[in-house]
Write a structure and sequence with these properties.
Chain lengths: 323, 512
């Protein structure tokens, strides 16, 4: 030990530190326990697979959203990006374009829409909330125009395989989401780009003065969010065999909820994808549970909103007490 | 009350105070008392626990154990609000005023006098009351002035006015002078003396030994969370205090190393930017430390910012290593080999919620990554050596930089630029808030870097620092370079005169 390193004391591993680290897991366990007691269908294998499958879609969107919120931004346009890229891909593949190319086009559309978000925010100096709200409207409008209000159905097997096939016992969407999760976790924790995301979220002024091209990084982040939304869209459409013009409406809400419940701070610079993973599972389990208990979908919104508010209060309280 | 209020009564007693943070024992069993009407200086190395102790006294932190007595009675200070009610006010280094509001509004924030209706603020009374305090302190700005128009020094005075308005009996100042020029500091001390006469107890933290010795009544020294001594100032010398702080005989204060001065690496002509920088031309040479003096607001920081591409240049040209360049972003400046240690470390330098590792190595990410992946081992090896070299106190590399003491935070920012080893390094108030021994360390380091051929431009409000290590000294006033002195010609007086306009265009011709 060098003299310059302060001597560690027997500092208490306090309750608040414990809660900060494992609180989410605890809540999840309690919820699962409660639902198991209340409904005998909850713990069945098929229901659990159901939850996870649903979670892959919102989880993929939430991964991109995590990056955005880490930079202290927000992306309200994910639902619309998901819709536009998915319907275009579905249409093209139906007309004979190879499925893989269709997927790539969808992701490119997501990237471009994300890029426009990023440029509006950085060059146009429009607050993320407003910029992506605009994109939400425009994207949905374009989707409606493109589909003329009608769904595309009857997609070829080559398209649907990403939604319904499985590798061994593991459904394809879970494989894709799992891979994406691993890649993005590595990106955030091991790479220069990942470090920059946290640093920019913490203090963009200092980041610029340390030589980071802040604007470019922010554009990349919104592009990633757009691409994640597009990927989620492809999987969703492949699974449902139907690209509805209103697909993905309100998805931004679940994604933001998952990220925030997962402990990522709205003020940026703090949070992990692992948190988002648990956040997603929690939100989906909650939705599933309310469904099983036959709670009206109207109440579902109320309950989810309340959960988010509680999560925010909880993290605030913890942060204050670890100061 | 039972006790007699004489000068020898303790106004305040701290008994056996202990406070630990995860991984750090910040204050270990400190017992300290302060009299009515005295100025008690609290000194110690960076991370010694000074701010922590004072934060406990002002209710911002709660001690793990210990007792606080005020006028002989035990008090429980559970929040800043409670401290205020007890008459204890703390002026933090980061001032807490609301910039868009007026002086009077800030002084009475949350306690505005109301009209008879009980709803509307009685602005007239508020202004009049504020005026009384302003007069009492002999301040020269209007109570209706907006905070953002005031200098840092004036804002500090507003904080003090606020402390007085709540009838504080104990006022704590955490490094109040580190952002002030000497002249402004003197004014602050005059005010502190006035308050002392009114039997207010003042405790102030500072790293500036000269001022501590000219203005304080007693000095309390902390080291590693413990109180190592309290003595009347007259019984101590700078050397003895420093020795108490460091716990060993301090190595020689480093004499200025004579280095060979090389060719010009940077020339700038007619720089203009914003309202603060009007016209400045200067050059920097390899191996040379150039000191940039001037009053706060004279445009020194703005020079640093345009040279670093942080602000757009409205007129003028910059030549780096013989090439005319346009520096449009810090990223480009860094590519040209220019580094900048910014003046305001909280707002412009640090990522408070990120680790010491990330904060110290941000400039290294490009160098130490392969295919975008960080080479953490290499980075860590480098950081550990920087931590040793700068004697940064942190329990580990994962510690959030916001949890380090002020001086250690500053060292982390400096470490970041050492890593990059730029050919031109600009430092804006680099030793603000840094303890004496670390300051000597940093000066030594600057000398070493210069001797290896780096060109250094150092902005400082501390004249002894400027005079001590500069080879050449530039003085600014109102956005213009007013004077240039060689190391041998410069004196405090000449610099002050040039900075305040009593001496026009002194020294060598600026555009040689
Ligand atoms: N919130 C915190 N969490 C963890 N450690 C902390 C926290 N606040 C302070 N510390 C640690 O406690 C020790 C004392 O810090 P303190 O700020 O009191 O030092 P200081 O004497 O004021 O130093 P400086 O002269 O640099 O301002 C340091 O090692 C610091 O890292
Ligand atoms: Mg301090």
């Amino acid at each position: 030990m060098t003299t310059s390193v302060a001597q560690p004391s027997s500092a208490p591993f306090t309750l608040s530190i414990f809660l900060k680290r494992f609180g989410l897991l605890l809540v999840y366990a309690l919820l699962a326990l409660g639902l198991t007691l209340l409904s005998d269908r909850f713990l069945t294998g098929s229901n659990q697979i159901n939850i996870v499958r649903q979670a892959t879609i919102s989880g993929i969107v939430a991964i991109g959203m995590t990056l955005v919120i880490l930079t202290a931004g927000i992306d309200l346009s994910v639902g619309s990006i998901l819709a536009l890229s998915a319907v275009v891909a579905a249409d093209l593949v139906k007309q004979g374009v190879p499925a893989l190319l269709g997927f790539l086009i969808a992701i490119a559309i997501g990237a471009v829409m994300g890029m426009i978000n990023g440029v509006m925010i950085t060059r146009g100096k429009i607050p993320p909330f407003i910029a992506t709200l605009g994109m939400l409207t425009v994207g949905r409008g374009l989707t409606l125009m493109y589909t003329q209000g009608k769904p595309f159905t009857g997609l070829p097997e080559s398209f649907r395989f990403i939604g319904i096939s499985s590798i061994g016992p593991v459904p394809m969407p879970i494989v894709v989401a799992g891979l994406l999760f691993i890649v993005m976790t590595l990106l955030l924790s091991r790479t220069r780009f990942g470090e920059y995301v946290y640093l920019i979220g913490d203090n963009p002024v200092a980041a610029r003065l340390a030589g980071i091209n802040v604007n470019r990084m922010i554009v990349y982040v919104y592009m990633i969010s757009g691409m994640c939304a597009a990927l989620a869209g492809i999987i969703l459409v492949a699974r449902l065999d139907s690209a509805q013009p209103v697909i993905g409406v309100g998805y931004e809400f679940n994604a933001i909820a998952a990220v925030v419940v997962g402990g990522t701070s709205f003020s940026g610079g703090e949070g992990t994808l692992l948190g988002t993973l648990f956040g997603t599972l929690l939100i989906e389990t909650l939705g599933n549970g309310l469904n099983l208990l036959n709670v009206s979908p109207l109440w579902e919104q109320v309950v989810k909103g309340t959960v988010i508010a509680l999560a925010l209060l909880f993290y605030n309280a913890i942060n204050r007490s670890t100061k | 009350m039972r006790f007699k209020m004489t000068d020898q009564t303790y106004r305040l007693e701290l008994k056996n105070i202990v406070k630990s943070f995860p991984g750090v024992m910040a204050v270990r069993d400190v017992t300290l008392a302060a009299y009515f009407g005295e100025i008690l200086a609290l000194v110690g190395e960076n991370g010694a626990g000074k701010s922590t102790l004072m934060n406990i006294l002002s209710g911002a932190l709660i001690a793990d154990s210990g007792m606080i007595l005020l006028d002989g009675n035990e008090v429980r200070i559970t929040s800043p609000r409670r401290a205020q009610e007890l008459g204890i006010a703390m002026i933090h280094q980061e001032l807490a005023l609301i910039p868009q509001m007026s002086v009077a509004q800030n002084i009475f924030l949350g306690r505005e006098p109301l009209q008879v209706s009980g709803i509307l603020v009685d602005t007239k009374k508020m202004q009049a009351d504020a005026q009384v305090i302003i007069n009492q302190l002999g301040l020269d700005f209007a109570v209706s002035a907006i905070i953002s128009d005031l200098s840092i020094a004036q804002r500090q005075m507003v904080e003090i006015a606020k402390a007085i308005s709540i009838k504080s009996r104990v006022i704590i100042l955490d490094e109040p002078t580190s952002a002030l020029s000497e002249r402004e500091s003197v004014k602050l001390f005059e005010m502190m003396h006035t308050l002392r006469e009114q039997k207010v107890t003042l405790i102030y933290i500072s790293h500036r030994m000269e001022e501590i010795f000219s203005f304080s009544d007693r000095i309390a020294v902390m080291r590693d969370g413990q109180l190592v001594g309290v003595e009347p100032t007259g019984n101590l010398s700078i050397n003895s205090v420093v020795q108490m702080m460091v716990g060993r005989e301090l190595k020689e204060f480093f004499p200025k190393t004579e280095t060979e001065i090389g060719e010009i690496v940077l020339e700038a002509y007619g720089l203009r930017s914003g309202s603060r920088l009007k016209n400045a031309s200067l050059f920097l040479r390899r191996g040379e430390i150039v000191g940039l003096a001037g009053l706060v607001g004279s445009g020194r920081t703005e020079i640093a910012r345009v040279l670093f591409g942080a602000d757009p240049l409205e007129a003028g040209e910059i030549i780096v290593a013989g090439q005319k360049v346009k520096i449009q972003s810090p990223e480009e400046a860094i590519r040209l080999g220019i580094g900048l240690v910014t003046e305001d470390r909280k707002a412009q330098g640090l990522f408070l919620r990120q680790s010491v590792r990330s904060n110290a190595s941000i400039t290294l990410f490009t160098k130490f990554s392969r295919f975008g992946f960080l080479q953490v081992k290499k980075i860590d090896r480098w950081i550990r050596s920087a931590i040793n070299q700068l004697n940064i106190r942190t329990p580990n590399l994962e510690q959030h930089v916001g949890n380090l003491s002020g001086g250690n935070q500053q060292k982390v920012v400096i470490a970041r630029w050492l890593a990059l080893n730029p050919q031109i390094l600009i430092l804006d108030e680099p030793t603000r808030g840094i303890d004496v021994s670390a300051k000597a360390e940093i000066h030594n380091l600057m000398g070493e870097l210069a001797s290896k051929g780096m060109a250094i431009l150092m902005i400082s409000s501390e004249l002894p620092e400027i005079l001590g290590i500069s080879d050449r000294i530039l003085v600014m006033r109102e956005g213009r370079l007013m004077a240039e002195f060689s190391r041998l010609d410069a004196t405090q007086d000449k610099i002050m005169q040039a900075a305040t306009g009593q001496l026009e265009n002194a020294g060598i011709n600026l555009n040689e």
